[in-house]
Design brief:
The protein is of the alpha+beta class. Helix content is about 60%, strand content about 15%. It has one domain: Orthogonal Bundle (Arc Repressor Mutant, subunit A), CATH 1.10.10.10.
Length: about 110
């Protein structure tokens, strides 16, 4: 049985959070909602993330089928990240989290 299937065997929310949870994955997905981004662009949107952590999170999101990594054969190398169809299906959820966060900020 695949690791993802094991994680979600008892609870689908557990599976979902294992795929998009953590400090950075949701933020990466949020920044990809409006289109393709290069690694440097994502890094600028998230100045507190290390290059190593951004690479790790992007690889995990790609492995889980939520983002697509397109490599162009040019010098210097060009790589773009975008949401897959599965990643696009999270758009409404992420935008609802954005709205909830804004509403919560107003109450603080």
């Amino acid at each position: 049985m695949k690791e993802k299937e094991k994680r979600g065997k008892n609870c689908p929310v557990e599976l979902a959070l294992s795929l998009i949870g953590g400090k950075w994955k949701g933020i990466i997905l949020y920044h990809l909602i409006d289109g393709k981004k290069r690694f440097g662009e994502l890094k600028r949107f998230m100045p507190n993330i290390t290059q190593r952590m951004l690479t790790k999170q992007l690889r995990e999101l790609e492995s889980d089928g939520l983002i697509h990594r397109k490599v162009y054969k040019v010098v210097p190398p060009k790589v773009e990240y975008s949401l897959t169809v599965q990643g696009e299906s999270l758009k409404n959820i992420i935008l609802l989290l954005e709205k909830w966060g804004k509403d919560y900020q107003k109450k603080l």
